[in-house]
Specification:
Radius of gyration: 23 Å
Number of strands: 27
CATH topology of one domain: GMP Synthetase, Chain A, domain 3
Oligomer: single chain
CATH superfamily of one domain: ANL, C-terminal domain
Largest sheet: 9 strands, mixed
Length: about 500
Amino acid sequence: MVSNDTIPGLLSSAVARDARGTWLRTDEGTLSFGGAAAHVGRLAERLTDAGVRRGDLVVVTARTTPPYVLVWLALASLGAVSVPTDPTGTPDELAGLLTQVQPRAVVTDAELRAVVDTAAASTRSRVLDVVDLLGDWGTEREVVEVPVADGIDPSDVVVLIPTSGTTGRSKLVMQTQRAYAWAGVGFPWWMELTSADRMMTTLPLFHVNAPAYSVLGSLAVGSGLVLVPRFSASGFLDSARRHGATEFNAIGAMLEILMRQPERPDDAETDLRLCYTGPSPAREWQEAFEARFGLRVVCGYAMSESPYGLIWRHGTRPFGTLGSVRQHPTLGTVNEARVVDEDGTELGAGETGELLLRNPTVTPGYWQMPEETAAAVVDGWMHTGDLVTTNGDETYTFVARKKEVLRRRGQNLSPLEVEEAILEHPDVLEAAVVGVPSELTEEEVKAFVVLTPGGTVDFPTLCIWTAERLSAFKVPRFWETVEALPRTPTSRVAKHLLPRERTPEEYDAEQ
């Protein structure tokens, strides 16, 4: 019997429960739990034939489509380690990731094959086409037992999650079979979902949310899983209607963008009843959203380093907060939270400090980065880098990010990575990238640039230059030239002294 503390264990249990039940739903077709398991078995055989073994790293250009979901499950069943990456990333970013991890193989598709071949040329990685491996994913095959490599353990690393830029040396979060499986078991319980629900995701498979909560959550509870390749505000509700979706997860500005769509009389005429998001919006705004779309929003907090974070408890509506500590539905109390000041002193009600988490889903660390790991995980406590206020009623309110990583369009980006791309231009002497307020929540990105003596580059040119080196969400929207960057007494750039408000001198790339 495969442990339910592993990814293949959840798939096996789902097949044993309802092999013929429909699991995957897309505009291209459907697939049962048993059919998915059969494809996973076939994929595992073909990946093995391609030389993939337990513990091998495999980069996957992870689109939110059934073939990539099935490949991910097959790699987990083999005990291999997936390294999912943004399929819209630039060739430079992909090449940087491949150079860093030196994977056994790269799984991609025909549309990206030329880019991947070029990026993989300097490595020994074998490039595999997902369609060649899988065939027609919508074909129902004879139900088979889910293949599981010998000795797979819940503590085995199963995914490396890129959390910042993939040029140069990316910060890769190691996560375990247990972390993903527990997230899958926990999510439907936290959200009060059943096998009658249909969970819809438009979120990327190269983050933790969609694979851990939606994919594995649907396996754990036996619900349907609706896959929509990308978020489209104009088509979102129509997709939900077509597939009878009852729940979806939102990140970033998704809800705000939906709210800004022209109102229609049928906005609430869907089967949607639940939405999971975070951080928590203002109460008035949230209630207006719920009333317009006829559903209930549940707020929470988690991170790649720990899918067990905070969430609104059943029957509670602590508006404006991230909720309380998430626990396991059958094992009970497994998760602890603390709020501490700069000296590590635990803080009390009404005080603001860094949120720390300790539970069995906390990352083993950052791949091949022992110093970063030692700084982030201390005595089992994950230092989240996020500032919260403890409210005295077991709930926490998000305040700000302590770490410099910016959050834009639902994704994390490193200012340093953006600065390095800008600095490659010969007319740029210095650059400082900061987050500035956005109308769509989260942050917009602004670059302050010092030109070289005699430099004449204009901002439209710099935008194009940067876009050729970075994904679109990383390219600054706002640009401004300055004669010099402010400095601290130790000569570091004092980014806190750079203006966050709009200025007459700045250039807006979206106008």
